[in-house]
Amino acid sequence: MNFKQKLLVASLVLGFSQLSPVAYAADPIKIGVSGPFTGGSAPMGVSMRDGVKLAVAEINAKGGVMGRSLLLIERDDEAKNERGVQIAQELINKEKVAATVGYINTGVALASQRFYQEAKIPVINNVATGSIITKQFADQPDNYIFRNAASDQIQSHMIVEEAITRRNFKKVAILADSTNYGQLGRADLEKALDAKGIKPVAVEKYNIKDVDMTAQLLKAKQAGAEVVLTYGIGPELAQIANGMEKLGWKVPLIGSWTLAMGNFIDNAGKNGDGTRMPQTFIQDASTPKRKAFIDAYVAAYKPSGGRMPSAVSAAQGYDSVYLLAAAIKQAGGTDGPKVRAALENLSEKVDGAVTTYNKPFSKTNHEAITADLTVFGEVKDGKVILAK
Amino acid sequence: MEIFLQLVFSGIALGMIYAVIAFGYQLTFATSGTLNFGQGESLMLGALVGLSLVGTIHGGPYMGYLLMIPLVIAFGALQGMFVEWIGVRPAIKIKSEFGWIMSTIALAIIFKNVAENIWGKDDLTFPSPLSAAPFTIFGANVQPMQVAVVVGALAIMLAVEIFNRKSIYGKAVVATANDRDAAGLMGINTGRVITFSYALSSATAAFAGVLVAPLTLTGATMGASLGLKAFAVAIIGGLTSGVGAIVGGLILGIAETTTGYYISTGYKEVPGLLLLLLVLAIKPSGLFGKAAIKKV
User: Fold this and answer.
1) Is the entire prediction scored with pTM above 0.80?
2) CB B22 within 8 A of CB B248
3) What is the CA radius of gyration of chain A?
4) Do A38 and B121 touch (CB under 8 A)?
5) Distance from CA of A309 to the nearest CA of B (A)
6) Of the segments A214-223, B1-10, B284-293, which one has the largest average pLDDT value?
7) Which of B136, B215, B217 lies closest to A235 in CB terms?
8) How many CB atoms lie within 10 A of CB A63?
């Protein structure tokens, strides 16, 4: 072997030994995003995605996580369970994501997340609220499903508390849509009412895209309801508010957080004023962190009129990425079981838009949002403000 | 009693919407034996074009509600001609039995996607030309716009019927409907009559769109379920009878609201569909339809 050959071999060996760690470090961490970016729940899905993108852009601008940048793989699940399942399989098997954030629709989350559970890949639900979501695999030794959204259990308690205790209504009607979301929420509401010894005077159901709510509202009206509690999404909720005007019957509307959606507020117009709903985040710069988040969001996505289509979804989407990034950093890699363990025992305080998370999760508690982080919002003149 | 009246009034307003769309199905079926399965999408496009003209979404409002109606009808007519040209004419030419089904459905999906791109995926509010405050008839509340829907629907169907019976062009339509081959031999350009019937059909749907839009919400997905229910109405009433469309629409509309109240809102779609099955089993040509004898 002459000198030249030796040099060649040496440089090759050196080159390889250097190449691999460099390539490893530059390898981005893939994070899946699954949510409905089209259809009736699109305002939530798109806001969530924008919040997620904002957080990822901020983290990458600061050099990523452990020197690796974050790469989002976004997929539109169209709020359809079967699409959600396909996307879960694609993200796990083809894209090999380190974790997935998202899910707006409880049904889609329940159908899809079993694949993550089997593959030992963590999921952070940042919008879907069905109480059972984080408990789907609670009986298994390790649960990979986390959430940083106010569950229906929290929300239904707050709704009932507001209607019965604070505003002293005795006769309540429940209107819920026929989806998983509406029906699971209705069950939670009935349970919460039952705990107060109250039986709703009317419990009615409607379908997505229904244009006439006369029958449901008439039943509530005939039963003498003093307040209508709702579980549904924006467009149909607007039909309820507008349907009340049609009947010349006006009682307060209190319902789940979806009453803050832009497509409810716009379509209900003045009929929506005074409507109240639990919120984890209101577009109101009450803390410096919130102000920075709102300003960055409005600057990046320029929502019409400066109003975020679903501020809660955006804030929770934003926070979910920071929680995940902190866990990956603590785990020292993207190994699923290690990230899960890190999430369950986060040593770092995570400063998010909703709150500063201090040990948000534990082995048995996979819910980051508690009742005292949730406030009541009220619709007023086309905006959601903090209810007094 | 007031409750029942209230339900019936709501049912009538809902039913007349179904009736107008069902009427559109009949127009094309009569002349060509084909249907535009994108009828709901024609309604949706009409409503959205109307919204662009009278609403603020595209820099408007450009005009008042009444002025907008003829423009929307003209737009609907063009859209119907387009559907016939792209989707139906080739199928008729090669005497395909089913080609037009797939192509009108495909066009419907394309129209929906186009609408999503132009008007967005969200439901929008259509400014109501009349006051939204209800007035009372026999203790039941009725919105002025609901009355306008019923009157408008009846008016457009009446106008089409008078046109068909009185004018020479209308007679060509009726002749083609009765016997396309014979009409062709008599010198009627049946191809043009079919195009015309599609134009008429989509124009009525577009008109129905701007009628219902102030009552419901306007958006790319508003047409699908309305189009499907109207199809059920067309089958119940009979595909060859204008009166059938009205009666079928009223039956379905009132059945939906009354079932919702008296039985359960969870079952409100069921009676109408049961009726559909019953009609298909007992009188397949529909309540008012003429039984067609198919000569092979």
Assistant:
1) no
2) yes
3) 23
4) yes
5) 11
6) A214-223
7) B217
8) 10
A and B: number of Cβ contacts within 8 A: 91
Which of A215, A245, A266 is nearest residue B260 as measured by Cβ atoms? Answer: A215
Q: Higher model confidence: residue A107 or residue B292?
A: A107
Residues of B with Cβ-Cβ distance to A242 under 8 angstroms: 132
For domain B2-121+139-282, the CATH architecture is Orthogonal Bundle (1.10)
Percentage of chain A lying above the pLDDT 90 cut? 57
Taking every pair of C-alpha atoms in chain B, what is the biggest distance, in angstroms? 58
Whether chain A has a CB inside 8 Å of the CB on B215: the answer is: yes
DSSP codes of every residue in A329-385: HHHTS--HHHHHHHHHT--S-EE-SS-EESS---SS--B---GGG-EEEEEETTEEE
The enclosing H or E element of A255 equals strand A253-255
Q: Is the pLDDT of residue B218 over 60?
A: yes
Delimit the domains of chain B by residue range.
2-121+139-282
Q: Within the 148-177 window of chain B, which residues sit less than 8 Å (CB to CB) from chain A? A: none
A24-150+285-374: CATH number: 3.40.50.2300
Q: Is the Cβ–Cβ distance between A48 and A56 less than 8 Å?
A: no
pLDDT digit string, tens, across residues B144-174: 888 999 999 999 889 888 888 888 888 888 8
The domain limits of chain A are 24-150+285-374, 153-279
Is the confidence metric ipTM above 0.85 for this complex?
no
User: Which pLDDT score is estimated for B271?
Assistant: 84
What is the β-pairing status of strands A145-147 and A350-351?
Answer: unpaired
Q: B134 and chain A: CB distance < 8 Å anywhere?
A: yes
In CATH terms, the fold of domain A153-279 is: Rossmann fold (3.40.50)
Alpha carbon distance A104, A114 (integer Å): 16
The alpha carbon of residue B296 is apart from the nearest alpha carbon of chain A, in Å, by: 43
